[in-house]
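User: I'm putting together notes for a lab meeting next week and I want to include a structural view of one of the chains we've been expressing. I don't have a solved structure, so I'd like a prediction I can at least talk through. The sequence is below, exactly as it appears in our construct file.
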Amino acid sequence: MNDSNHIVTLQGGCLCGAIRYAIDAILIDAGFCHCKLCQRASGAPAVAWLTIPFTGFSYTQGEIGVYASSANYQREFCSHCGTPLAFRAMQDPKTIDVTLCSLDDPTAVKPQYHIWCQSKINWLHLDDDLPQFMDAGPDEL
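Assistant: Thanks for the context. Below is the predicted structure for the 141-residue chain, given as structure tokens.
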């Protein structure tokens, strides 16, 4: 999948299999986030996310853990194995970001950009042709 604004029907879950989810929605976009919060939450230099309308996402198995990572946003994860799964607004979410590598087929959606490159780890060298933004990127993302 190279372009956004296509309907995707996908499934995914956590490492231990306790949490499962389903996606049936228009893909808004997908990209790598290099922000410090994603780095700390994942223990990795960047996290690949896809963004869809909130109404197109549902947990189908298990009970998620929730962490309020800022005043208005929460991160959702498997409280058993710790797999990061989603990021969304706590009140009236319009969209939800889902970790690409928690998909059963992570190759189904290709990242389109890098955001928050001002926080990119200096030993991580990006060798792709994707746009790189120092902050959250342009409004159309």
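A couple of points you could mention at the meeting. The chain has a mean pLDDT of 94. The chain has one domain: 7-119.

User: Perfect, that's what I needed.
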